[in-house]
Amino acid sequence: MPTNLSVSESDLHSLACMLLDRIECAFEAALDRAAILCARDGRLDGRRLDDNQGLCYELALIRADLLAAQTIVGAVANASAIDAALGLAFAADTITGLFGKLEAIYFECGLDTCELQALATGENVRRLRNEAGGMAALAKLGKLVADADGEIADVVLDEPTAMARDAFRRFAGDVVAPLAEKIHRHDLTVPESLLQPMREMGVFGLSIPEEYEGHAPGGRENTPMMIAVTEALSEASLAAAGSLITRPEILARALMAGGTEQQKAHWLPRIAAGNPLCAIAITEPDYGSDVASLALKGKRTEGGWLLTGAKTWCTFAGKAGLLMVVTRTNPDKAAGHRGLSLLLVEKPSHDGHEFICEQQGGGSLRGRAIPTIGYRGMHSFDLVFEDYFVPDANVVGGETGLGQGFYLTMAGMVGGRIQTSGRALGVMRAALTAAIRYAKDRKVFHAPLIDFQLTQIKIARMAARFAACRYLAYAVGRQIDEGAGRMEASLVKLFACRSAESVTREAQQIHGGMGYAEETAVSRYFVDARVLSIFEGAEETLALKVIAKSLLEDALSHINARGA
Amino acid sequence: MPTNLSVSESDLHSLACMLLDRIECAFEAALDRAAILCARDGRLDGRRLDDNQGLCYELALIRADLLAAQTIVGAVANASAIDAALGLAFAADTITGLFGKLEAIYFECGLDTCELQALATGENVRRLRNEAGGMAALAKLGKLVADADGEIADVVLDEPTAMARDAFRRFAGDVVAPLAEKIHRHDLTVPESLLQPMREMGVFGLSIPEEYEGHAPGGRENTPMMIAVTEALSEASLAAAGSLITRPEILARALMAGGTEQQKAHWLPRIAAGNPLCAIAITEPDYGSDVASLALKGKRTEGGWLLTGAKTWCTFAGKAGLLMVVTRTNPDKAAGHRGLSLLLVEKPSHDGHEFICEQQGGGSLRGRAIPTIGYRGMHSFDLVFEDYFVPDANVVGGETGLGQGFYLTMAGMVGGRIQTSGRALGVMRAALTAAIRYAKDRKVFHAPLIDFQLTQIKIARMAARFAACRYLAYAVGRQIDEGAGRMEASLVKLFACRSAESVTREAQQIHGGMGYAEETAVSRYFVDARVLSIFEGAEETLALKVIAKSLLEDALSHINARGA
User: Is 60 exceeded by the pLDDT of residue A517?
Assistant: First the structure.
């Protein structure tokens, strides 16, 4: 029996594990069925997948809920008492919700629901629900979370990671936080007074191996460290701190995966030093998540390529000195994603919301920052390339890298997605602690808001959701370093970003009118959180094209193996 | 059999009605039990209510879902085929959700769940779910909604209301919409170029009887008309048009309920003419929804009162020439809400974000607009009164009106809340139609977004929710005109405002990155929608203090009657 749990908690813990196991079986039965619905001749079929998008979307959401509950329940047996209670509360809420969602999927797939219903209506569910997820239990838990000032979800980190986390949290609180509101409200560019100390602290080289002057020890990536630093910085500001890491993260992983030795030796130390700063140009005005249709074209010229076309939502393109541009180098449209390459575009760094770079040979690159409701500080740019020259040396992977752009981008994306879940964690933690602080300070009906049951319940649910995201993100981070976790990176991104929306929304409600005022930080957390489910892979794209597809492929290969 | 429904739809319709009836019974059983838990000696007990806030909150949310489903299912038997399908789709989704929520409440109250579970797992639920709420049915429905450009939820309106609605929709589209983005993004004050035509169109006198030069015919209020105009204006802009009605609505209803004949004759025609514009000052910095504790004090002086204290979130206070100020006229704190009166404060109209009014006798009133993430155009002000003189003639109800401030405010609030649901309707309709337009225009993976099943399903669910809100709001509007619907006004406000958050969120997701850009109207709909659950009674306050309390009181009086 885990020593941090009381007898009755340990009992509930076993019960939650047992229920989650049974739900896992029920989910796998639905997956098998869905895989057959979406397959033709033993392989997933594009048309059938399209005809079952609604089903696939729900499957991805269910998988996310379920994996989050399994992960936190699995982890908290060795965690603090408060985390153990949060894990059980999350499991109780989630299990109840999962029965409804699974039943809908069973109906949809034409599966018999008898067993599922017997499980859902059993005494075990009632017990878990009442003892871990009932109103009295949640209220008590919310009070504990408030007493702890929201310092919960204490994931085990190795010593260097814990130290980095502490150092960056101090830096974020002391240096970033005082500037965050101003940068947001005046839509400023992240100032050098923030960038320079972050360069010195190694923010830009977190996933770059030491041999390339980065900070990932032992020649391998250190994803938990990257998440921890991201989270610490995002707690103070998503846009002026926590998101600085995304772009070097994507670019470094793409270079590690496909760059020539010379490119790695040249660029990785520079990226790690934050000099130049980087940006990633993938999305085009006419193509959002449909990477295979990208049209910005590169035309061969002497010694390199001339780029012509448009990109959009290129974050930090103004300030950046290096853009990773997904470019169609094979003019044959039929080549689809196999006609794409990664080109490294160098440009001068610009402050401000617009820029023009003109080359001596007549090429140009124009940029315009797109005004957004939040996520301000780095600016996301519309870019127009006209015969912009890029030398051959800047094709990632050199001549053999031509046509590899799609795969290298995807290699980078895994890093971008897990990093984004770290950003969501930081925003959630900021919202949770702000809500707790306000609820302690604010008096209504002659008592502090935190003394009211509904406030305590809301705090408990926000905290349980945050804790589930946090345990999941770090668990996936460790998987990624072991070479796995590709689908899970999308899954935790989906789950944490949706969670950040609901947690920041509830934090606003606790603030009442003040939650809507720009002078209150929680209003910024809310508009910032809204971007998370849209960028770095919109949730619909991740759910359908990555998560559901991967789940169904796995299910199908098991089915085929059984059949063989 | 209703003639607009096919045989199978008519069958499903009967089935939905039957299920909702059974759920109603199940809900009432939970209410009875909750009423007993919250009572002492046959009366609701404040302490016990506080100990059961979590339960009460859930009861209010369940009642809202259930009433919405009952109302739309009841109404659409006589509506268009598309509305009939939307009603069934909403019922199917809602009924599935309600079982989970009811079960949680049953667990919480210690009620036996056998019957509820038997109902939930019955063949009827599966049939309704599959035929009206399954993915294929939703996708088909979403396509129909898109083909109709979102012109759905065709509530029956009398001829004058339908005409007014059409006229205001045209005006809103032609005159308001072109200015809406600029007003929002530059945080401007609603310009006279919008106010003057709205004055002429009678916007400010919608609920003021004709005898007082308003536009409510036959001497009675016309709430559906007020909702229809609000909705039409809010579709173009929540803040620069649809919300102009809220304040005259609250003030006129308070005056009608408690003003002297002389006050009504003096003020109502002026308010109806929009000259002066009005504002309502209730909330104080230290007291949000806790009206009984309000502290801004009025001190008797010769011929009137001197006001000293602070108010906050007083929307339109700058532009307004008349403020309804809830004032503590009885210095005895123990008088609680019986010590409050309504004073009509006159002041010059100011444009801009700050103002100072100084009186000859030395009194002053200062105002400062609070910057907010949305709902921009009218500005919500912090106000500081210092010995600001108000003549006796401006005490609503005269000498006998002293101490009546709380009751008169509440009379006005019912109007403010139903009006706010009209605002939510307008924002939702705008988001829905924007999402449809974008989904038709935008191509991904070589086809318009609307051709994808997940888009269709999302559109169907958004439309079904909007339709449910709309049928409910107008039904409650009619009840209010019959002197009832007080609790229901809060309920529809709660339901429609939460719905506006989810509908605008989904509309953003359909827009992808563009949904986050300030240049795309849907980003404004999203930040505007966020205010709706916060102001005019925060959702927690409405759920606990109005809805749950009223439901439990009713349940208790039935229990007591049965016992007697």
Answer: yes
